[in-house]
Amino acid sequence: MLEYIVRRLLFMIPLLLGITIITFVVVHLSPGGPADMLIGLTPKVGAEAKARLHSLYGLDKPIHVQYWAWVKRIVRFDFGESFKDGRSVITKILERLPATLLLNILSLLLIFFVSLPIGIMSAVKQDSFFDKGMTLFVFLGFSVPTFWLALLLMLLFGVGLGWLPISGIHSVNFPFLSFLGKIWDLIKHLILPVFISAFGGLAYLSRYSRASLLEVLRQDYIRTARAKGVPEKDVIYKHGLRNALIPIVTLLGLSLPGLIGGGFIFETIFAWPGMGRLGYQAVMSRDYPVVMGVGVIAAFLTLLGNLIADITYALVDPRIRYR
């Protein structure tokens, strides 16, 4: 197992390198630039001032020279400085990373611990009223755009009813609240972003877990267990569910890229101070060092999530061994 993990970690290096090359080229070929964003609203600034800014940022050099200089800094874990405010990129990312990890981890936990029981109940009570109701929920989950649903829930629970906050990670009076008050304030700010972030995953994973469990329950060894008089509860949870979990773990690991990618949208909608919102702001201001830094961290977290999913196979099914 240890050898497999080391090989996978080494294989992540060329993958990350390829991702950075594509991202670097796309970012630098996109319309506009840092100089245009900084002085675009000042019509008196001429071409000479723009040229000096390009020279200051090193953007006057060929793109392969710029990329090689960036790679040499990355090897030293130096992501450069932001074009926007001159602050260290790694500092800005580390300030935002905990909020993004909190949102994504809670979303993954919600997806797993809610969709799995729904899928099990739907499989055990196939064609029941509950199963048909969950089928309708799945159709809604696939068809409703999550950003549109986010706006509706913000209007309903935030503006209309006033039950939940619709932006930020804490209230203005957060420093003056008690310890329990701070926790409750954080929970209220998390409810809408976590639900919206997990909504799509809840829909497809619950349906997939239902289909996976139904397929396992039709196997011969399940019939044998029932014929021997094994209690139905043990048949489902000890014999059926463990084998049905293997493809579910795959989907759960593959859902991490969607959560990180969706963070750019959800964190912007809810003004969540995370890495996704930082990346969106960097893209809009053509802040190349921040865009590349956020891209590298997001790609690494995605590849790490896939690796964790592969390792989890061995915990779910002891028959699986990596060599």
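^ that was protein a. below is b, sequence first then the tokens
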Amino acid sequence: MQSIEALFSDYSAFHQTAGNKLFHRFGIPMIMLGLIGMLARVHLGSVDAAMILIALSEIYYLAVEWRLGLGMLLISIAFYFLGLAIPMWANVALFVLGWIFQFIGHKVYEHKNPAFFRNFVHLLVGPLWILNGFIPVVKR
């Protein structure tokens, strides 16, 4: 498993411009909230799909950087309850709008494809990278 520094270095190479970074600061949380809110409505016995996604993501997050992993757990729990509180259509809209923000950032500002086109792990790294921008734990 790559270190968090190596993951952030690779991810940062696709996120150099201020415009792209700004669109990601809004888009990634919108995607997370929308996705968690949608998956919270998919019941799988005594749990739902959002709980499974959060649990599996947390295993990865805690393994690569436990402090950011704990922060991401708190955010994910908050997004879980917020996502349940807002209507399904709003979750869908947040999810779609968040992805539009991502692609605007890459197409208009960065002129590079998103990092996850090359490495799907970056779908998990992006939220940590955004969180680290607000609560710096790892030097980028």
